[in-house]
Write a structure and sequence with these properties.
single chain
Length: 1457
């Protein structure tokens, strides 16, 4: 019978969107699972779905758990984007002279249906869904594109033979062909508990007793490859194979052999690949040799437990191992080394893996868990509360002390507990309940300390465990008799210890003992503190086994409600009771010493009646006994074999109708399940055995007056905790302890007194008197090295701030001596950007950029990185004060990110306000003297304005106005009105010669004796001249206007006033000020109403909060609002290069002209693994140097790429002509910082685009591409709620790499697929912002596309730009409303482009890879494309912004006109 996957599907409203980036999970005494976010201070319960849990283990987005039925469950949380997998198969054909193209292949050929390499046969009829947690999205379809271009309708590609290079065209020598078929399947069990297939079809044969998840940082392994290890009741260690991001439940279980004497009880897995396990005797075994090539390791190493203490559980971190002994003592393993040595290589020292000795720590715990950065959280042994280990750091990994974590519970919409906790003094009893909706029977539970319950059970009751004709108390074993005697002594008040050797009990007894001990730790067990239960077990000749009942197969079994004996005999599905796992000898003997938390009324007598063995064997009488305690809608199936317990049948036809038929095939079952609705999906994904149904426990009402073993239900007790996915930093603790000093009464009292004093002593007199101090000044000084004439010269710095004429002035003074003493002053109003960088060899440098030389900075070298960061804050603060900038950026901001991940922003609104202020202050009246050149103090650059108001004389003939250079040698603009001729002549004089005249009629605007006004405005391309407040003419620049210094007026005119203004117009791009913002990301995208998103290097999504500080930029206490903790992971790369030698093969010895043996990707710079440093002091290494198997272009099994020579096109397979090879090494590092960015739900994004316009309903369209290539649309994004509400999948036929929304009113969406094609979303408008389908657009002919940018172009207009894989910029031509896909790609410029951004007004911004000017090459330059018109759609050139080292720019929203 095919295995049927179980998953409990439920509606989890808000769980995905509210689940934070980091959470702590815990299991309560009722078996419920709770989560605690690092940015919350309240516990949130995961919805109760009828399954109680014993243990859980968490990772970033995965939660693995052990249920009360001893089955393994997995919970994928926070995955807003669906998990989709594209199944591929290739249809192969060969041409023969007789048949032509046919499916008849040669014996040496690949199969007719195969994988891409032809090594695996993949017939579409044999490709099934892995489990019922998956669902097909459609049928098999042809993939009709090849290398970014569309194929014909049959989609064949041709080659000479298998395997060769394929092409879309059939040639004369094409002997084979193939085409690609694809089909998508989706994982539907998101935000849901989904049971993992067990080791055997019948999970009762080998139930699990422990589960642990780790991995993700194993050297050389994929980041989404997790390690899931488990332990079964047979003490076997099992590993779940193939657990990855696109396969959450894995493929199968693999047994890892252990020595016969090393029987494992629990296991723990670290993120870096450490695996430690605890054995029956309390010792530890460590798995060694775990790597990418050996994911399950190679051998076990035995580690002795602490002296006198046997370990009960263990938890593995990155650099630490903690353990808890059976006496609740805490132990820390000393001498553990990192998995990486000082050079970044994998550490092979055995001591670094197993440590040296155990260190006893203060405290008593039941269990503990170590987080991803070695933070520790445990459960107290006395109060069952959570405790956090404080002070844990790299220098002090054992921490300092334990701190109680006590937080309230958030009200849950989950159904109430199966039974309320009894009131003190009431009689505790168990009852059974039946859910008529789900058809499940559950036992009333009041969880608590199970070990105390076991002790109470053994001390106050006489329990007979029936097994055929013999009970446990009838055994002749002397140890058992001793234990019975000890129990009787315990009842009389005498304390004795019972110590029975484990060797005296068989292996089968050990399995039952472990089950019983598991029941002690879980509320899903049948034994609780206020309950006395009759345990009914069955024993065979081999020993003690778990009790079980028989249940009909829940497929199409029709005997549930039928009395037919024949139909009953057909039911042979064996089911294990999860409510009673049986009691063994060891279970009886495992009596705990402490009973301090139990309160009994000694006057109350406890009695327990147990049927005799003959009575139990009589199935009729057993049925009568059980029918007294079971619900009315329960019946019995009298089909169990002799001596077995009759099975319980629950009348719930809805369950059986919703489950798949085991007699059907997987495909039939999948089709049947795919067509079901959500309600049936919730039931069909349920295991046939769960913790709340089908119990065989005989429940007796018992009188325990005054017995209050547990507190009330609202006082939750924790039985298990996992911190595997909870990131806690010692310097930035979560908000779990937010009720600190700011909430203390003494602080409130002081604040109230200060407020009262201010209101009485200061506020009444405000404004009545002048301030005692009119200005504030301060000076900050320091030492550095100043780069002068290519020499680093010692210098003294002094940053001063003073108040002058109601304005703050800041300047930086640099004193240095180079041949002679010199001093340089830089006004901070002239600083365009201040960037911090670390140049090799690890030198912290501050780069100050000014408009005079915007690409070549003034460089300050500091001795320490902390000094450079302090001066970065000083200079940034001075620039903000100088410019009067306060608050966050406006919606019209331009964002930029450096190659180091630092974020900068230029606020165009602030610039516009400054320009208007300058316009007012720059308005000057000039005294006119005819024939005398008047100096223009700021020249006449673009944006300047000149207005002459005058009166012509009664007999006026002509006059002229000259805008000229110094000395009157050149005239940029000559205006000569000739009144009698009724026209004016405009011209230019350069190098003593006049240019071609331009004549413009005057009309009636200028006559003799008339008062007139003529105004001249300098624009970027021409002079705009108006006459009497009307535009008269334009005169294009024939020489640069920046050389204009004077104006001269000569002729028959009487001047009245001459107005000059130099502040009008747009500020130079090189004058824009770039303000640093806290945080660290890889990409920023801004849009309408200030909605701004960011993506970090580890693909996490963030939204901008509006604050400005955090990270490198220190703010005040009041400015910390909106600043959140951030983390990022960066990968450092080194390339290894080799050349082939006929004698030695591939070797590091190359030709003298070859690249370095260890270099960067270009091969021009030497880069070794030993010399690679962290980006800054805030980063830490998280992995060793490993071979990167994800290099673009593919690699062989050792990670090599081959080519004919350096540099050439590289490929994965070596051919005869390949003489060189290379491979990439990677090492990861992590940054913990802060910034005004709030983490989004757990969705990995590679690209995001925010619309520069709003939809009809006021929302802002946000499109994104997930890490798996899925295109998604975010609903509900507004200025007040930039995070939005939820994601919606926008289906596409192939994976995408980028997407962009833009055009007029944001009604155009373009994307780029993984194969380099462009795609246009069709039928998209403001009322339907998602469109209907994708339209394919071919890539440029020479290379596939990498990114597109969509901008506005006037009403109904769209401008589309693209960048291919080589960095070549293109413009899509003829994108009209009736033909939005355009006609062709136009290559724009020869410069290499890294990234592009198009605004809603049609501007194109880009980051150029390199720019070469007078002082040499500059890399990473921001440029704005100029001269884009209908005649020149590609523009004419670039206008550069200040700074260098940029990696991305975003300018989507321009200032309103």
């Amino acid at each position: 019978m095919a295995y049927r996957l179980s998953a409990v599907r439920a509606s989890l409203p808000g769980l995905s969107s509210n689940m934070p980036a980091s959470s702590l999970f815990a299991v309560s005494n009722l078996g419920r699972v709770f989560s605690l976010a690092t940015d919350k201070n309240v516990w949130s319960e995961l919805p109760y779905l009828g399954v109680e849990f014993k243990r859980i283990s968490s990772h970033e987005m995965t939660l693995w758990a052990l249920g009360g039925d001893h089955q393994v469950y997995v919970f994928i949380f926070g995955a807003s984007v669906p998990i989709r997998v594209c199944e591929e198969t290739y249809e192969n054909q060969r041409w023969s002279p007789v048949q032509g193209w046919s499916n008849t292949l040669l014996p040496t050929d690949r199969a007719q249906w195969s994988s891409a390499d032809g090594l695996e046969e993949r017939s579409p009829t044999r490709i099934h869904l892995p489990t019922l947690a998956w669902m097909w999205e459609g049928s098999w379809t042809l993939h009709d594109t090849f290398m970014g271009h569309a194929l014909d309708k049959e989609a064949w590609t041709y080659a000479v033979d298998f395997p060769r290079t394929y092409s879309a065209e059939q040639r004369w020598n094409s002997c084979v062909r193939r085409r690609k078929w694809v089909r998508y399947r989706r994982y539907v069990a998101l935000d849901t508990w989904s049971a993992v297939p067990p080791v055997h079809k019948d999970h009762t044969q080998e139930p699990f007793i422990d589960i642990a998840v780790g991995g993700g940082e194993v050297p050389g392994e994929d980041a989404d490859a997790l390690m899931v290890w488990g332990v079964t009741a047979l003490a076997r260690v099992m590993v779940r194979e193939g657990v990855r991001g696109n396969c959450p439940e894995g493929h199968k279980w693999i047994h890892v052999e252990t020595a016969p004497e090393q029987e494992v009880t629990s296991v723990s897995v670290g993120r870096s690949g450490r695996v430690w396990a605890v054995t029956w005797d309390g010792a530890v075994i460590v798995r060694t040799g775990i790597s990418r090539e050996h994911p399950t390791g190679t051998s076990w190493v035995h580690v002795e437990p602490p002296n006198g203490s046997k370990l009960a559980c263990i938890s593995v971190g990155v650099r630490v191992v903690w353990a808890v002994a059976r006496d609740h003592s805490i132990w820390f393993r000393r001498g553990l080394g990192t998995m990486v040595d000082s050079n970044g290589e994998t550490n092979s020292d055995l001591n670094s893996e197993v440590g040296i000795s155990w260190l006893h720590m203060v405290g008593r715990l039941n269990s503990l868990s170590v987080g991803p950065n070695d933070q520790v959280i445990g459960i107290g042994a006395d109060d069952y509360s959570l405790y956090v280990r404080t002070g844990v750091s790299v220098l002090e990994p054992s921490g300092k002390t334990w701190r109680l974590l006590s937080l309230p519970m958030q009200p849950s919409d989950s159904p109430p507990s199966p039974s309320p906790s009894p009131r003190p003094g009431s009689r505790a009893s168990w009852s059974s309940g039946f859910d008529s909706k789900s058809g499940e029977m559950s036992l009333s539970e009041a969880g608590g300390c199970m070990e105390h319950a076991m002790e109470t059970l053994f001390k106050n009751s006489s329990i007979n465990v029936q097994s055929g004709q013999e009970s446990l108390c009838q055994k002749e074993d002397k140890s058992v008799k001793d234990c019975v005697d000890q129990r009787s002594l315990a009842e009389s008040g005498v304390e004795r210890k019972c110590d029975v050797e484990r060797e005296e009990i068989g292996n089968e007894s050990k399995m039952d003992y472990l089950n019983a001990s598991d029941m002690v730790q879980s509320s899903s067990s049948s034994i609780v503190s206020e309950t006395i239960v009759d345990f009914v077990s069955q024993v065979d000749d081999t020993g003690w086994e778990n009790s079980y009942i028989q249940e009909q197969d829940r497929g199409d079994c029709s005997c549930k409600n039928s009395g037919s004996e024949k139909s009953k005999e057909n039911c042979n599905c064996v089911r294990q009771s999860n409510e009673c796992q049986g009691v063994t000898k060891e279970g009886v003997l495992d009596v705990r010493e402490s009973i301090a938390s139990l309160h009994f009324d000694s006057s109350e007598k406890v009695s327990q009646e147990v049927p005799s063995s003959s009575y139990v064997n009589d199935r009729t009488k057993v049925g009568e006994v059980m029918s007294e305690t079971l619900p009315l809608n329960c019946s019995f199936s009298d089909t169990s074999p002799s001596g077995a317990i009759p099975s319980v049948t629950l009348e719930s036809p809805s369950i059986h109708e919703s489950l798949c038929n085991p007699n059907m095939s997987d495909v039939e079952n999948a089709s049947r399940c795919n067509s079901s609705d959500d309600q049936s999906l919730a039931l069909r994904l349920r295991h046939p055995s769960n913790s709340s149904s089908g119990s065989m426990v005989v429940m007796r009402e018992d009188s325990l007056a005054g017995c209050a073993l547990l507190p009330l239900q609202e006082d939750h007790l924790w039985v298990w905790v996992t911190a595997g996915g909870c990131w806690i930093t010692p310097n930035n603790m979560p908000k779990w302890y937010s009720t600190g000093s700011e909430e203390q009464p003494w602080r409130k009292q002081i604040l109230e007194l200060l407020h009262t004093r201010h209101n009485t002593e200061t506020a009444p007199f405000k404004g009545q008197y002048e301030e005692a101090v009119e200005g504030v000044g301060w000076v900050v000084s320091g030492q550095c090295r100043w780069l002068v004439s290519s020499h680093w010269t010692p210098a003294s710095l002094a940053l001063s701030m003073s108040s002058q004429q109601d304005r703050n002035r800041a300047k930086l003074c640099i004193d240095y001596t180079l041949r002679r003493h010199s001093k340089m002053e830089i006004s901070l109003s002239d600083v365009s950007a201040c960037l911090l960088t670390l140049e090799p060899p690890y030198r912290p440098i501050l780069a100050l950029y000014t408009p005079i030389d915007p690409l070549y900075p003034h460089s300050l070298l500091f001795d320490a990185e902390t000094d450079a960061e302090d001066w970065l804050n000083h200079i940034t603060s001075g620039c903000l004060v100088e410019r009067g900038i306060t608050g966050g950026p406006s919606p019209y901001a331009v964002w930029a990110v450096t190659s180091r991940g630092h974020i900068y922003v230029h606020d165009r609104a602030v610039t516009e306000q400054g320009l208007r202020a300058e316009y007012v202050s720059a308005h000057a009246e000039l005294k006119v003297e005819l024939g005398v050149p008047l100096r223009l103090s700021r020249g006449f650059r673009p944006g300047c304005f000149l207005s002459l108001k005058a009166k012509t004389s009664p007999k006026a003939n002509r006059f002229y106005i000259n805008l000229q250079t110094e000395g009157s040698s050149d005239i940029a603009l000559h205006i000569n009105p000739r009144i009698h001729d009724g026209k004016a002549v405009l011209n230019t004089k350069e190098s003593g010669g006049w240019g071609q005249e331009k004549k413009q009629p005057l009309g009636d605007s200028l006559l003799p004796g008339m008062v007139f006004e003529i105004a001249i405005v300098c624009d970027d391309d021409d002079f705009k001249i108006s006459l009497n407040d009307k535009l008269w003419c334009n005169f294009e620049h024939r020489m640069t206007p920046y050389t204009i210094t004077h104006v001269t007026i000569v002729g028959d005119v009487i001047p009245e006033s001459l107005t000059y203004n130099y502040g009008a117009g747009e500020r130079w791009l090189s004058e824009w000020y770039w303000r640093g913002i806290g945080g660290h990301v890889g990409r920023v995208e801004g849009g309408m109403v200030g909605v701004t998103w960011a993506i970090s290097n580890d693909l996490h999504a963030y939204t901008f909060t509006g604050a400005t500080h955090g990270g490198l930029y220190k703010g005040t206490h009041t400015s910390e609002e909106g600043v959140h903790t951030m983390s990022d992971i960066r990968r450092m790369y080194v390339w290894e290069n080799q050349r082939w030698n006929p004698l030695t093969g591939f070797t590091h010895r190359g030709l003298p002209t070859d690249r370095y043996t260890w270099s960067d990707q270009s091969g021009r710079q030497q880069r070794t693994k030993e010399a690679m440093r962290l980006p800054s002091r805030h980063w830490t290494w998280t992995s060793a140097w490993t071979v990167d198997y994800h290099t673009s272009g593919g690699v062989d099994k050792d990670g090599w790429q081959y080519a004919t020579d350096f540099p050439m096109t590289y490929h994965a397979h070596r051919y005869v002509t390949d003489l060189v090879r290379r491979r990439r090494w990677v090492r990861k590092c992590r940054l913990i910082t802060s910034g005004p960015w709030k983490h989004m739900d757990k969705v990995a994004l590679v690209h995001v685009s925010v619309s520069p316009f709003a939809n009809a309903d006021g929302t802002v369209a946000v499109w994104a591409v997930s890490a798996t290539g899925e295109v998604v649309y975010r609903h509900g994004v507004t200025g007040a709620n930039p995070r939005g509400q939820n994601w919606e999948l926008v289906s596409a036929e192939c994976p995408f790499v980028s997407v962009c929304v833009g055009g007029w009113q944001g009604t155009s969406v373009w994307g780029v697929s993984k194969d380099g094609r462009a795609h246009l979303r069709v039928c998209l408008n403001q009322k339907n912002p998602k469109g209907t389908h994708w339209l394919n657009v071919d890539a440029p002919p020479d290379a596939p596309l990498q990114e597109v940018a969509v901008g506005g172009g006037g009403p109904e207009g769209v401008t589309v730009w693209g960048v291919d894989s080589r960095g070549i910029l293109y413009r899509r031509l003829n994108t009209q409303p009736l033909f939005p896909e355009g006609t062709a790609w136009l290559q724009v410029c020869p410069e290499e482009v890294r990234s592009i951004s198009a605004s809603g007004q049609g501007e194109l911004w880009a980051v150029l890879s390199s720019v070469t000017l007078g002082k040499g090459e500059v890399r990473g330059v921001i440029g704005r494309r100029e001269g884009v018109t209908n005649e020149t759609p590609g523009g004419t050139g670039w206008n550069y912004a200040a700074g260098s080292g940029w990696s991305q720019v975003c300018a989507r929203v321009g200032l309103p006109l």
